[in-house]
Amino acid sequence: MKRLFVLFVILFLGACGNSGTSSSLEDFDNSNLKEDLKEEAFQSELPTKMPFEVKEATFTPTPGEQREVMQTFQFDGVDGQLMDLKTNSGEVHFSGTDNEQQVEIGNNEGTFGKTENGSLSLHWKDGDLTYHLMANGDEITKEELIETATSFE
Is 6's pLDDT higher than 50? Predict the structure, then answer.
């Protein structure tokens, strides 16, 4: 009887430990990108979790006057995955996606959709910044894209 009780407790604790959202995302150290942003007009939040192991992450400064209002990032995975992030200072309206759905990204509301070529598109506003995250839909799921956006710091 004691063994049965111990087995029950182990199974119960195991079930409780898995009741939250499980993450299949990889940790991502955004400190190099944050360093690149120090001299920029605004400081974007960046992901701390990614749906793939990142081989290279790049920040490309926007030329000219647009540099004050837009930042572009690219994340390349070790197995060829690709994710793009555009951050804008101020309000931006995105188009070109089908079947747009309202989604929650932490405490913010966002819009999820798919482009003509099958890419996943997620955009949301956080404070004065508007974020647009895009990824290949064959390699990344809607849930992973939202979880990545939720990890921004």
Answer: no
